[in-house]
Amino acid sequence: MDYEKQLLIEARAAIRELPNHRCEIIDLYTVATGEIEEGGSAAHEYELFVGSVDEIRKETLTGA
How many Å apart are CA 37 and CA 20, to the nearest integer? Predict the structure, then answer.
């Protein structure tokens, strides 16, 4: 899997789904891609990004 490409796809989808969290999602994407550029595991950064977006979804649904 091309994790960097998938990160961008997931980020765009999350922004469409959660437009009120656009800046936060962009920040998460920027951190993930920066870590990958610095030699971090792309798979790990992808999983962290997806997990963080899932947390935003949960908070949005529960109103927390």
Answer: 28
Per-residue pLDDT of 23-57, as tens digits, reads 999 999 999 999 999 999 999 999 999 999 999 99
Residue 9 C-beta-side C-alpha neighbours within 13 Å: 7
Write out the two tokens for 1: 């899997």
Looking at beta carbons, which pairs linking 9-13 to residues 24 or more positions away fall under 8 Å?
10/46, 10/49, 10/50, 10/53, 11/49
Domain boundaries, the chain: 3-62
35-33-12 Cα angle (round to 5): 150
DSSP three-state, residue 37: helix
Do the beta carbons of residue 42 and residue 3 sit within 8 Å?
A: yes
